[in-house]
Write a structure and sequence with these properties.
Layout (H helix, E strand, L loop, with lengths): L4 E3 L3 H8 L10 E4 L4 E8 L2 E9 L17 E3 L10 H6 L1 E6 L1 E8 L2 E9 L5 E11 L5 E11 L10 E3 L7 H5 L6 H5 L10 E5 L41
Length: about 240
Amino acid sequence: MCGRYAITSAPEALRRLFGYEEMPNFPARYNVAPTQPIPIVSRQEGKPRFALVRWGLLPAWVKDPRTFALLINARCEAVTDKPAFRAAMRRRRCLIPADGFYAWKAAGKSRHPYYIRLKSGEPMAFAGLWETWTGPNGEEMESAAIITTAANPSLGSIELRMPAIVPPEAFALWLDCDNVDAETAAALLVPAREELLEFYPVSPTVNRVVNDSPDLIAPAPPPAADDRPAPSKKDDGQASLF
């Protein structure tokens, strides 16, 4: 699952990594949350393109957005056949820049946040899907979802799912919807190798969307032991934030 993440690299560093021509200037964000605008990189006219879209996929066939569930995550096992995702998996794959993401570990009755990032300290790219929804009055909304896969064994001690991370050498393949079919692209949707990532506990202040500062990704003391039973949790591939 991925319900919160961070984008802290300088805009020019992200521009170099993803190779888009646009020159966006945006501040570091330490607590990106669903429904907020997020940057994505897609392939348009043969080139990487930067865009800001809403986090929470809205398929083109939806009649009334008010009655449709917010799709912030898409399970990799379902992206090629689930109606909400299969068209985007064929024609509208994207990369979602990030520097790290959060996961919540059950500790008895409570849950404690952890921050996960590349050991190299470099930014990463989540596999994503995007869509354009057009309303009855011609209004348009572009939106996206992060694709998740099973957590690798280390992260599995915290969460059952993790974002599918696309390595830089596979950016072009993932984005090339004209020449790379959905089934071939889906082979990239695997857990990240354990030696690539590190994680550590952070402050519960990340639980509040209004908090957005470097303190959120600073290491914090491990959570105290709590012997009370944790509440039951259903793994639906979506974000279960707290």
